[in-house]
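dude i think i finally got it to work??
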Amino acid sequence: MTLSEDLSRVRRIWLRAPNWLGDFVMATSAFARVRAAFPAAHIAAGMRPYLRPLLSGSNVFDEIVDTPRASGLRALWRQVRDLRDRRFDLAIVLPNSLATGLPPFLARVPLRLGYTQGRPFLMNVGRRAEMQRRLLARRLGPKRKPVPMPIYYRDLLDVVDLPPVDLRPRLDVTPEDDAWVDEHLRSQGVGSGDRLLLLVVGANFGASKLWMPERFAAVAKSFQDRHGMRALVLVGPSEVELGERIAKEGGAICLSRPVLPLDKLKALIRRGALMVTGDTGPRHIAVAFDRPIVCLFGPTDLDYTRYCLERTEIVRRDLPCAPCQRKVCPLGHHRCMRDITVEEVVAAGERLLARG
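look at this
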């Protein structure tokens, strides 16, 4: 039986989504592509529980299955039994890890599509020479060649010749989330007509990505004074103290009480006039809604996210040590972030606002 004949029989699909916020948003075009290719199939998505609100308002999946990080054999076997009971015909595993590839293999899902690096026997779709050539084209010896994640996922789905779709991320916002954000901003003294400067000041990746708090505060002051914008500091649960310090110094508002869940964060970002951020997950939500973005790059490689940059200004330093992809600066000086000035970030934001 040919691969196309196998795929024509697919009725139930397990799609394992990426674990990180940014990667998840960059995978939404792949989600849409799978749905368009299998309109009548039952598609269940496995994802980290905290990511579930990102899909509010979307009907791309028939079912969402929480897949928290498995700790120990007992948790792994629970996942395997659950997959086996659901009787999937096809597993599409977007993350390239042993932990995400092992459950569908042990559950004996007949067709398993995913990158084979580090798990060559777990995936069984794409072993023919041409398919392997496509998948291995993204390698530099034993290492992965940096490539934007939407293209990385696209190349995987190209292996089975699914009809192409646009690579721009796809997110939806519900009227309920819009109304909640309206009321929350009103309670903070922000009017519906105010232009919003969104400052994303943290980074789950690690300390090496962080820009100096006093510089974020200076950016907030500049755009509020020159353009009458309202500066809002966006934080995650571990960044509240940092965000409130920046807000106090910059005359901004820190949206930390409560920290916004992802469904509400989507609705807020969609109405932003300008975002200033490091290489963070919320940056990709802003891309999905075509918002202007000033993005500060330090230790991470732009080639992993070099996509849909029409309304993005990249600010970075070309240093011999960058990009190192390290969570903590191994040299101890953080020059890649420290050398980015307030003046050039403000200038980048001014250019975006001038373009409209």
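The chain has a mean pLDDT of 91.
im so relieved honestly
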